[in-house]
C-alpha cells in the first residue's frame, strides 16, 4: 500500500470488474472504462450543484435522494453543498457499497443511509419525499434504460415533494433528457466536460 499509488480490484456480479486506483492521494473508481468516482466526476457535480444554487438561491434542500453510489466519491460533495441535509442513497451493487465503505471518501461526514436493491423496487418504497433527487445511474457509459420507462419516471415524481428538484446526468446521451418532460418542468440543461445534465422541477 502506498499513498503515491495503490490499486484495488473488486469483482461484481452486477458491474463486472471494479477498479479503484489511488495516485498521489486521489482515488478513481472505474467501471467498464468509465470514471464513477474521481477528479472529473467531482468537477461535474460541483458545477451541477452551483447551477442549482444559481437557479434556486433561496430554496431549502433538507432531504436528498441519490440514485447511484459510484464509489461514494460525491457523498462529501452533497453534504458540503447542502449543509445539514439528510441523504439517502439507492445502489443495486453490494460490491460498490463494500468498496465505498473501504475507501471512506465521505469522511469526515457520516456514511449516509444506503438502501441496496434495484431502484425500480427501492425508489417506490421510500417513506419521505425528497427536496432533491439526483439520478446518476449507468450501464457502462450508457444511462440506465430505466430513464426511458414511464413507470420509473412516475416513481421519480412520487419520490419528490411538490416543487422538488430532479437533477439528472446522462453522460453523452443527451436525448435521454427528453423523457422526464412527461412529468416535470425543464428548468435548465447544460453540458460539462463529456456530460450532459438537466435540472427539472415537479409542478
UniProtKB/TrEMBL annotation:
Species assigned in the record: Candidatus Kaiserbacteria bacterium RIFCSPHIGHO2_01_FULL_48_10
Taxonomic placement: Bacteria, Candidatus Kaiseribacteriota
Protein name: PABS domain-containing protein
Highest taxon listed in the record's lineage: Bacteria
InterPro entries cross-referenced by the UniProt entry: SAM-dependent_MTases_sf
Amino acid at each position: 500500500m502506498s499513498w503515491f499509488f495503490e490499486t484495488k480490484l473488486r469483482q461484481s456480479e452486477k458491474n463486472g470488474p471494479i477498479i479503484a486506483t489511488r495516485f498521489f492521494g486521489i482515488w478513481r473508481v472505474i467501471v467498464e472504462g468509465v470514471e464513477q468516482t474521481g477528479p472529473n466526476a467531482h468537477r461535474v457535480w460541483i458545477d451541477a450543484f452551483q447551477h442549482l444554487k444559481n437557479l434556486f438561491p433561496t430554496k431549502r434542500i433538507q432531504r436528498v435522494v441519490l440514485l447511484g453510489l459510484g464509489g461514494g466519491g460525491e457523498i462529501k460533495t452533497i453534504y458540503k453543498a447542502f449543509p445539514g441535509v439528510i441523504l439517502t442513497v439507492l445502489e443495486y451493487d453490494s460490491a460498490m457499497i463494500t468498496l465505498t465503505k473501504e475507501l471512506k471518501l465521505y469522511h469526515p461526514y457520516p456514511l449516509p443511509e444506503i438502501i441496496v436493491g434495484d431502484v425500480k423496487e427501492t425508489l417506490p418504497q421510500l417513506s419521505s419525499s425528497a427536496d432533491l433527487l439526483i439520478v446518476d445511474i449507468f450501464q457502462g457509459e450508457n444511462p440506465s434504460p430505466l430513464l426511458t420507462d414511464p413507470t420509473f419516471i412516475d416513481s421519480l415524481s412520487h419520490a419528490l415533494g411538490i416543487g422538488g428538484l430532479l437533477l439528472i446526468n446522462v453522460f453523452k446521451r443527451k436525448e435521454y433528457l427528453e423523457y422526464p418532460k412527461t412529468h416535470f418542468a425543464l428548468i435548465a440543461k447544460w453540458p460539462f466536460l463529456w456530460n450532459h445534465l438537466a435540472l427539472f422541477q415537479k409542478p
